[in-house]
């Protein structure tokens, strides 16, 4: 009888600790969804449901072998312009949908490839590279002094440039 009593006390404690464990788990997820801890996934907040490549080399390989255009976003975590563009990009449903047709890479560091900074190293800047691994210097934003810069107000231009990159793919290759 004593064993049964201990066993039921033990099971009760297990049940209570499980219930408490679940509650603390819920609290943590609420906090983490509100404020993601860095470093996050490869998306870095640009679109968590999208597939992002890890390195420039991997992105080039996937673009070439998958016959898809590559979209490279250069940005910095502590740059307010990058943050503003990221927010608009991530919340723009059409852009997120269209982005699925690209090989995607976002970089918080500069590459040694000079082709990726045709007019200087500034952020945020977005470049498109076709599957023949040519940087599309003809797909630019609206600033003559920073050809590949986009601001949140340029999101529709970015969207049409993404469409252009996909159209060029069909007509040229």
Automatic annotation (TrEMBL):
Coiled coil: none annotated. It comes from Haliaeetus albicilla (White-tailed sea-eagle). Residues 1-21 form the signal peptide. PANTHER family: ANTERIOR GRADIENT PROTEIN 2 HOMOLOG, ANTERIOR GRADIENT PROTEIN-RELATED. The keyword tRNA processing does not apply. It is found in: Endoplasmic reticulum; Secreted. This is AGR2 protein. One of its GO terms (molecular function) is dystroglycan binding. Keywords: Endoplasmic reticulum, Secreted, Signal. The keyword Endoplasmic reticulum applies. GO terms for cellular component: endoplasmic reticulum; extracellular region. Belongs to the AGR family. Its main location: endoplasmic reticulum. It comes from the Eukaryota.
